[in-house]
Write a structure and sequence with these properties.
With 379 residues, this protein is mostly helical. It has a domain at 12-33 and 133-373. It is 60% helix and 1% strand. The protein is built from 15 helices and two strands. The protein has helices at 12-30, 35-67, 71-101, 126-139, 170-179, 181-187, 192-196, 202-229, 236-261, 279-288, 296-302, 309-314, 323-336, 346-359, 375-378; strands spanning 292-293, 343-344. Strands 1-2 form a two-stranded parallel ribbon.
């Protein structure tokens, strides 16, 4: 697979100017945030509610079709209901939950959109996500030993990761992880490996698991017990519809996130690289570890605007629907400083992710890369 253009190493003054230009774009955009942003997120919240309600009503209609022997109604309502519910869950997960928890709408002072307390519709707790994603991942993006999102402890996606025979199974593990992605996110902060090797005591693990287990139980009860029971003895279409909708949401979320972080030219960094890191250097690291997706407004909406992963890593607390407009200037700035702006279609970017999963299941060595920052800029 052909590699994309390489980044030009920057000197100290260029590095500072690069950071200043990107900071200035952030300031100009924040100055525009207001009523139009509030109206946008409220429309999305309404869409989540109506698609969810419509999906569940259609699944109940499918149950009625089963009760009265109307096969055509059963299959039509089941498919449409499942897709509508999946759409609701995707929008809630990506465009509402993820972005709200980044504090993008805290300025509205709406308790339902408070980034510090929002709880989303997956088995993972909001508090754990705010720790592992908002802080650890966004602060230490792609820094080995500091960003747990590098392979999520299951996959070897970069040659810099030490190879173990376990990784030979990762093509299969990757498929299972995609289907159960919300569960992987839910247990990420538990660090089960430390518990299994005795580094974390049982009592400490139990304390960490209690809120996670409570959230898991709540989600399982809602989707697989309460709503199916409302259909009485004809619960099966409702149960299966909820299950498939969650699987669709999981696979889509996994695909979008992996395309944003694990394409061919995405890089990882040693801990030493962030010592005394300047603002400009931080931006370069975010750029070098991120990739965008093309596809227009519908792709932006369905990905929670993580189709603009570069802009999201630069500006995680700015309302994400603004990333498309910001991307025009971000790309121009990157071009002027000789920095590659990685973007491509979903099939192409995900193809590169699949290549990484397959290639690095086997032993591999890091390839030589031109330094991003000139030596005097790192001193």
């Amino acid at each position: 697979m052909t590699s994309k253009p390489r980044n030009r190493a920057l000197g100290a003054q260029e590095l500072d100017r690069f950071g200043e230009e990107l900071d200035a774009l952030r300031a100009r955009t924040l100055a525009q945030v207001g009523r139009v942003d509030a109206a946008y997120i409220r429309r999305v919240v309404a869409a989540v509610r109506w698609f969810g309600l419509g999906g569940r009503l259609l699944l109940f209609a499918a149950a009625a079709g089963l009760a009265f022997g109307l096969g055509w109604l059963l299959w039509t309502a089941a498919v449409l209901g499942t897709l509508s519910l999946a759409l609701s869950k995707i929008l809630e997960n990506m465009e509402v939950g993820h972005n709200v928890m980044h504090g993008q709408y805290d300025w509205m002072r709406d308790p339902h959109l408070d980034g510090k307390t929002y709880e989303w519709d997956i088995v993972a707790t909001g508090d754990n996500w705010r720790k592992t994603h908002n802080y650890q991942h966004h602060t230490w993006t792609n820094v080995r030993g500091m960003d747990d999102d590098i392979g999520y402890g299951l996959l070897r996606l970069f040659p810099e990761q030490r190879w173990k025979p376990f990784f030979l199974a990762q093509p299969l593990i990757a498929v299972v992880f995609a289907l159960l992605f919300e569960w992987g996110v839910a247990i990420q902060d538990l660090r089960l490996g430390r518990w299994l090797t005795g580094k974390t005591k049982h009592r400490a693990m139990w304390r960490k698991f209690v809120p996670v287990g409570r959230k898991m139980g709540k989600q399982l009860l809602k989707d697989y017990v309460l709503f199916p029971l409302l259909a009485g003895p004809f619960f099966l279409p409702v149960l299966l519809g909820n299950l498939v909708a969650n699987l669709i949401r999981n696979v889509w979320t996994y695909t979008v996130i992996f395309c944003g972080h694990f394409t061919i030219d995405a890089e990882v960094f040693p801990k030493e690289s962030v010592r005394n890191e300047s603002r400009g250097h931080w931006y370069l690291r975010q750029l070098r570890g991120s990739s965008n997706l093309t596809g227009g407004k519908w792709m932006d909406l369905m990905t929670g605007n993580l189709s603009h992963q570069i802009e999201h890593h630069f500006y995680p607390d700015i309302p994400a629907w603004r990333y498309a407009a910001m991307a025009v200037e971000v790309r121009e700035i990157c071009g002027r400083y000789g920095q590659h702006y990685d973007t491509g279609s979903l099939p192409r970017q995900f193809g590169e992710v699949v290549w990484r999963i397959l290639r690095h299941a086997w032993p591999s060595r890091p390839r030589a890369r031109r330094p991003l920052v000139r030596a005097e800029a790192q001193a």
